[in-house]
Amino acid sequence: MSQRALFAHLVSRMPRQRLPEGWRICRVDLVATRGSGHTPKKDVPRYWNGDIAWLSLKDLPALDRVYIGSTRERISEEGIENSSAVLHPPGVVVLSRDAAVGKSAVTTTPMAVSQHFLTWECGPQIVNLYLYYWFQFIKSELKRIASGSTIKTIGLPYFRKLEVLLPSVPEQESIATTLRQWDGAITVVEGLLGAKRGFKRSLVQDLLTGKRRFREFEVDARETRSLGELLRESRVPCSNGATARRLTVKLYGRGVVASTNPRRGSSGTQYYRRSAGQFIYSKLDFLNGACGIVPPELDGFETTLDLPCFEVSPELDVRWLAALASQPWFYARQIGLAVGGRKAKRLNSHAFLKIKVQLPRLPEQRKIADFIGSLGVEIELLERLHIALDGQRRGVMELLLAGQIRIPA
Which residues pair with 35 in a beta bridge? Predict the structure, then answer.
């Protein structure tokens, strides 16, 4: 969607098919002073590690969070003086014009930027937060027009003509304040997600290794058992092996799903029936946590022996095993059992069944699995909330920036 098409789309959604009263379309360069950046010579140590924040591609993860006040690298005044870098005042809007095109933020401290970024110092007719949200709104358009074989970039001619829908300054402030509240909610949820994931990661490892135990099981001993004592490989062949009902296993314990790969094996390829509740792993990707449990809705699907399945002993809760086997620290210990080249190591069934585990009694396995499951549900709900808030933010942003919803100044 071009800039004009974007404006036409917005205007088409406005009441009475026209711009709201007091709004106008103007070039960004008429209301804000555009600047750029540069990289001081890397081989001159005195240009670096100074007191001046310097925005570079290393800081891309910190953008799109409204404000940015610190950077991964810093340069010196001498680095500024001996390069085309410019020290911009706080409050400028920065935008990535290549690499991760369209990422933006408002600076809170004096800052220089690399040549990968453009800056806008806003004049009295435009609020910096409003311009930030305008860039957030047109990000998909910026990504679309970026070109380049190695690194996608946008040339300066585009930004010289870049336009913005502009209400009055008080209304800009009201719009920015409203959208800032959505960003604040999203930031809170992101913080909760990070904390919950970290809590789960550390606590799950402690529970699975026995470093922490539920009080009622503290006196119970754990047995050292091989998986071969607890699992039996299932090799029930399919009658024709020609159906498209195939399974695949996601990496890092993210589950078992129906394969979307339409390719079929050769006419002689043998497929095997997989049943709900069986434990399954990938011989090629187990060292990346590719394992899980066949869910009820995929009962009767099939795989080759590259994804072996196992019937589970009554003394083993398969959820406990799946939680254990999907932990990075667990499958990293099994590298010595894999065979093949560095890029294609495989963990065959006979080697997999040699793996030894510290097995709790079945009641403790169940309680650990239930607890891990409840943590997973909490994280999934937070992830859904994050997606919902982000979707609301996008919708509200379009309504506000189009003037379809007016906020009193």
Answer: 119
* Positions of E strands within 324-386: 356-359
Q: How far apart are the first and last CA of the chain?
A: 31
Q: Which DSSP symbol is given to 153?
A: B
> Kind and range of the H or E element at 292?
strand 291-293
Rounded to the nearest integer, the mean pLDDT of the chain is 90
* pLDDT, average across residues 262-275: 75
Q: Cα–Cα distance between 182 and 394 in angstroms, integer?
A: 10
Residues 355 and 347: their CA atoms lie apart, in Å, by 11
* Cα 90 to the center of its chain, rounded Å: 29
Q: What angle do CA 229, 234, 238 make, to 5 degrees?
A: 175
Range with the lowest mean pLDDT among 74-83, 182-191, 257-266, 385-394?
A: 257-266
Read off the pLDDT of residues 204-226 as tens digits, 9 standing for 90 and up. Answer: 999 999 999 999 999 999 999 99
Residue range 380-407: mean pLDDT, rounded: 92
In sign, the C-alpha dihedral spanning 63, 65, 67, 72 is negative
- Annotation: CATH topology of 223-260+271-359: Adenine-n6-DNA-methyltransferase TaqI; Chain A, domain 2 (3.90.220)
Q: Say which CATH topology domain 169-210+361-409 has.
A: Helix Hairpins (1.10.287)
Cα separation, 191 vs 26, in Å, equals 38
Q: How confident is the model at residue 389 (pLDDT cuts 50, 70, 90)?
A: very high
pTM of this prediction exceeds 0.70: yes
**Dist. CA 316–CA 330, nearest whole Å:** 18
In this structure, are residues 23 and 98 in contact, taking their beta carbons and an 8 Å threshold? no
Which residue in 185, 322, 316, 199 sits closest to 250, CA to CA?
A: 322
Nearest of 188, 105, 122 to residue 385 by alpha carbon: 188
Residue spans of alpha helices (H) in 122-168: 128-137, 139-145, 156-161
Q: pLDDT for 309-332, tens place per residue?
A: 999 999 999 999 999 999 999 988
Which class is domain 24-166? alpha beta
Please report the pLDDT score of residue 343 as a whole number.
66
Averaged pLDDT for residues 134-152: 87
**What residue ranges of the chain are covered by domains with CATH 1.10.287.1120?**
169-210+361-409
Tokens (6 digits) for 279: 């434990």
**Strand ranges (DSSP E) for 161-255?**
163-166, 223-226, 231-234, 247-249
